[in-house]
Amino acid sequence: MTALIDLKDVTRRLVDPEPVTLVREVSLEIQPGEFVAVVGPSGCGKSSLLYLLGLLDRPDAGSVRIDGRATETLSEVERTHLRLERIGFVFQFHFLLPELTAEANVALPIRRLGRYSRREADDRAHDLLAKLGLQAEAHRRPDRMSGGQRQRVAIARALANDPAIILGDEPTGNLDSVNTRLVVEEFQRLAHQEGRAVVCVTHDAGVAAAADRRIHMLDGRIVPET
Amino acid sequence: MGGFLVLAGIAFAHLAVRTRQTLVAIAGVAVGVGFFLAVSGMMTGSQADFIRTLVDSAPHIILQDEQRAPAHQPAVTAWPGAAVAVRGVRPQDEVRGLKDWPAMLAAARAQPGAVAAPSLSGAVAARFAGRTEPLALNGVDPRIEGQLTKIEASLVGGHLTDLEARPDGIIISRPMADRIGAHLGDTLVVSSSAGVLQRMRILALIEPDARAGFYAGDNAAYGLLRTAQVLFARPNVVNQLHVKLGDPDAAEAVAATLEARWGYKWVSWQERSRDIRNLLVVRNIIMYAVIAAILLVAAFGIYTSVSTSVTDKRRDIAILRAMGFTERDVEGVFLIEGLVVGVAGALAGFAFGTVLLEILARLPITVQGKPLVLPLDRSLRQYLIAGAASLASALVAAWLPARKAAAVDPVDILRGAA
Ligand SMILES: Nc1ncnc2c1ncn2[C@@H]1O[C@H](COP(=O)(O)OP(=O)(O)OP(=O)(O)O)[C@@H](O)[C@H]1O
Ligand SMILES: [Mg+2]
């Protein structure tokens, strides 16, 4: 069985302003239905790894395969399209467009993909919000919601195009324990019941413990669990 | 199309939250477009009016019995390259005549929509009550000449065709009549260089009226062609052909063709008014420079507006890219922002410009005591030019910051925010 995400000896360096290696020779396989936590001290390269997985960044060496398909040779437009169809991001800060309602935010990637009419896209966005308990907030703008609600809207948006891969960068970093539990349960459901791969960078031991697998990073490398 | 609507939705949302800056940018374009319509409407309107006067007041083509280059002396032709001294050559000063003029007249009349008439013109002296003044007498065919020029509209006291019933009739300018103290119906004694004397009665006066656009000077006078031929003692001779064409713009080309075929000097209205038209070109350059400056200011408004939008929205750009929007999509969002400002500004400018033109049209202006209606070009063409220019400048002004938006690296922004 080919892994959904397959990294081989991935290295990512920066030369500007001073030479620094963000990710060093990382190899990693992630299967569908897996909930994986990435942990490690601040500055060890967790976010950098996530950008590489999510095709937002290109490695300087090594390969990133999605669905067994090499991504290095793809054009920027092809990589962007793959992101639109297959990958959903959730960040520590919600990153919703402040001018749009929750529903319009969630509908954006659906409408961009263009498989549904505007009406169907809005309906689908509404359903996703309802599943996350946000029916009442669908027509509110982000500045009129709580932090936990915004983060759930962001999750709904990440799920908009039914992606196989969910990438979270400290998605619970700004949430209280109740909201954190809601998000973790949602991630478990997405992996175990819907068969998606969920990769979640976290500093929260509880979140890490809830994952099927933990990847420890130190200084850009993956290190064995201690 | 669906993709475009998504981008347009984001663009409109951006504009809507920055209402004040957006309105300022729109107002900038509107002022530019409005002033373009008013200034350009006035300039092209008065210019078209002026050209029409140039075209209509006098024949489109005048054939004179002159050559472009004086003919070589026979001796020079006989000994080419030799040093030839020719002495005692006196320029002919009497009224000469056009050879083959009936054939040339027929050729001129064969042009599409053409009206052509022969005339004999020359210098005469007019005496009245002991005062003598020189006149440039044009012997014409009154009925055809009336179709060729606007003279009829500037006559007072009579008509050009009155000459047909009174072969001894003459038409002079009112300032000339004042100068010699003559009135309508008085009889002048007219003499030519050929020594012929003729008593001629004033049938009408030419009023130097700026608005009729016809005034050939105080000395110009009109009489019957036959009478002029008698005065100059040149029976059946003609020294000018006056031609009016169906299409005035063709005059220059037609004149060149006829000149190539028949010799002599065929002068089109374009050639006659070359200096004036060169002045108009300069005037137009100045006008368009001013307009360009106004549109440039409007473009700066759009540039600033879109540019601030790009800076404000870097986070949004990053998340759009992470979501799966391409660089082109991001560029499109900001281009649409500029375009919306451009279109809204153009529409507001159309309204503003229409109001300005309406005010100009009603402006009570008097020139030398006569009310003057400003000739204004209010055609659709003006609106199309203004609209196209403002849209083009809006697109360029938005494109520069939009490119910067497209170049935003989402990873940079995400790292900075995390
Ligand atoms: N733009 C940059 N220029 C220089 N160094 C950078 C830049 N961005 C990140 N780094 C460095 O790269 C390393 C990895 O950063 P990264 O954000 O991946 O760490 P992280 O594990 O996500 O940290 P945190 O847990 O604090 O989010 C860090 O040492 C950081 O200082
Ligand atoms: Mg990080």
Please describe the biggest sheet of chain B, giving its number of strands, its sense, and whether it closes into a barrel: 6 strands, mixed, barrel
Q: What is the SS-derived class of chain A?
A: alpha/beta
The strand order across the widest sheet of chain B is 2-3-8-5-7-6
The fraction of residues assigned to DSSP E strands of chain B is 15-25%
Number of domains of chain A: 1
How would you describe the shape of chain B?
A: elongated
Distance between the termini of chain B: 35 Å
Low-pLDDT sequence parts of chain A: none
Number of helical segments with 4 or more residues of chain A = 7
Please report the two chains with the greatest interface, counting residues with C-beta closer than 8 angstroms to the partner's C-beta: A-B, 35 and 30 residues
Overall domain count of chain B: 2
Task: Tell me the strand order in the biggest sheet of chain A.
Answer: 6-7-8-3-9-10
Bound compounds = adenosine-5'-triphosphate, magnesium ion
| Name of the top-level CATH class of chain A | Alpha Beta
Quick one: biggest sheet of chain A?
6 strands, mixed
* DSSP strand tally of chain A: 10
* CATH fold topology of chain A: Rossmann fold
The stretches of 5 or more residues of chain B where confidence is low (pLDDT under 50) are none
**Regarding quaternary structure, how should these chains be classified?**
heterodimer
> Shape of chain A from CA axes?
globular
What is the β-strand count of chain B? 12
